[in-house]
Design goal:
Blueprint lengths: L19 H5 L7 E3 L6 E3 L3 H26 L8 H19 L1 H14 L4 H6 L2 H37 L29 H45 L5 H4 L1 H52 L4 H40 L8 H14 L6 E2 L3 E2 L2 H20 L1
Length: about 400
């Protein structure tokens, strides 16, 4: 569907579509379907989570064996720290999706109930613009997952085919996609290179699918809330306090609906933050560590293929961390817009009852909704700066040692 062709009202499912590679790889973690009895959205299958759990056990089990063998037995390590750290980053998000799957389904249904069903109201709420923003982002993620992802997976193969010296020479770490330990020396044996590569590709698809599912849910929920908050702010701006003098009953009837709407949206923002706060706290700092390892890897090599392989996830980490922090800032600004809309009113022209109510409403509107985690961090552009500074400090520490 093109963004300029607005024929039928949008549905919540239009915003929750998975990427093509997820369908092919059976890595769709939320298969949204309508329950015919009550028209609620449900997750029709847990197959994506089951498959992902198996691949995570394979990957982290092999790397844990590699770490134990290196530390306790003194064997050579095949661990790739930069790849291992970013897979932790992806897997934390996947674990959060699984643990919060019921809350996610409930929250999506809450947004679905608040979503208008008719096209006229959707256009009035500027839902077409919300969908347009979603569609642009969906195509960008499509490019990332279907073009950059295969490039990342094929780089080690190119390195192996171009530089490997013979069948008797063990496979080096840079010729492998993920690294770690596999039984019977499979990872180091050139004869089984493509079998090992296929296993690594499956684990990579699992991690990328976790990342994309998290990203889609996070951004769709945020975009829907921005739409509702901005629409409410426009309704508040259209209030004329002088009507409280001429037709007080009708004015306060409208006013009560707006206040209840604001309370509902504030509750949604709090639940939204509750779903993602653990992922914010853990994965962002793990992302700083991953970025540090990638910068270290890039600074220590002059090989063009290795640089091409590791520069992609480096840019992805920076870009997506920036966007999450930007989304948090946008939510803050949308919440603050309600207070700004109130402050611009000619409240002093209203009735005495409204002027008293206005003071209470203004105090409530000053409770800005923010994304954060347990009071330790706030997800905004200041937090993005903190993450980049942390990554740079870790990088300089590694370089100095």
């Amino acid at each position: 569907m093109k963004t300029t062709e607005i024929i039928n009202p949008y549905r919540m499912e239009d915003f929750l579509r998975p990427q093509w590679f997820q369908k092919i790889a059976c890595m769709v973690h939320f298969q949204w379907q309508r329950n015919p009895e009550n028209n609620r959205l449900v997750n029709a299958s847990m197959g994506g989570f089951i498959m992902s759990a198996f691949l995570n056990v394979v990957f982290f089990g092999s790397n844990c064996c590699d770490i134990i063998g290196h530390l306790w037995l003194g064997s050579a390590s095949n661990l790739n720290p930069s790849v291992f750290s970013i897979t932790i980053y992806f897997s934390i998000r996947g674990l959060m999706l699984y643990l919060k799957r019921r809350e996610i389904v409930e929250f999506v249904n809450e947004l679905d109930q608040e979503c208008p069903r008719d096209l006229v109201t959707q256009l009035d709420m500027k839902m077409d613009q919300t969908y347009r923003n979603f569609w642009q982002r969906y195509r960008f993620i499509w490019f990332y997952s279907h073009v950059c992802g295969p490039m990342f997976c094929l780089m080690p193969v190119c390195f192996f085919l171009l530089s490997h010296e013979g069948k008797d020479v063990p496979v080096s770490q840079f010729e492998q996609l993920l690294g770690g330990w596999l039984p019977w020396g499979l990872r180091r044996d050139p004869r089984y290179y493509f079998l090992v590569w296929f296993i690594d590709v499956a684990c990579t698809i699992c991690g990328v699918s976790f990342f994309i599912t998290f990203d889609n849910l996070f951004n769709v929920m945020q975009g829907q809330q921005l739409m509702h908050l901005n629409y409410l702010a426009r309704q508040v701006e259209d209030l004329d306090p002088r009507q409280s003098v001429s037709n007080e009953a009708a004015f306060f009837s409208v006013l009560r609906k707006l206040v209840k709407r604001q309370q509902l949206l504030n509750g949604l923002c709090e639940r939204y933050n509750e779903i993602f706060k653990v992922a914010f706290l853990v994965s962002n700092f793990v992302g700083a560590g991953s970025l540090c390892f990638y910068l270290f890897m890039l600074s220590e090599t002059s090989d063009v293929l290795i640089i091409a392989q590791y520069i992609l996830p480096t840019f992805v980490l920076v870009a997506f961390t920036f966007e999450i922090c930007l989304r948090g800032t946008q939510l803050e600004e949308a919440s603050e817009r309600l207070e700004l809309a109130l402050s611009r009113q000619d409240w002093y022209l209203g009735s005495q009852k409204y002027r008293k109510f206005f003071l209470l409403w203004m105090q409530y509107a000053q409770r800005t909704q923010k994304l954060g985690a347990f009071g330790l961090i706030e997800v905004n552009m200041v937090h993005f700066t903190d993450i980049m500074q942390l990554a740079y400090r870790l990088f300089t520490f590694l370089k100095s040692h």
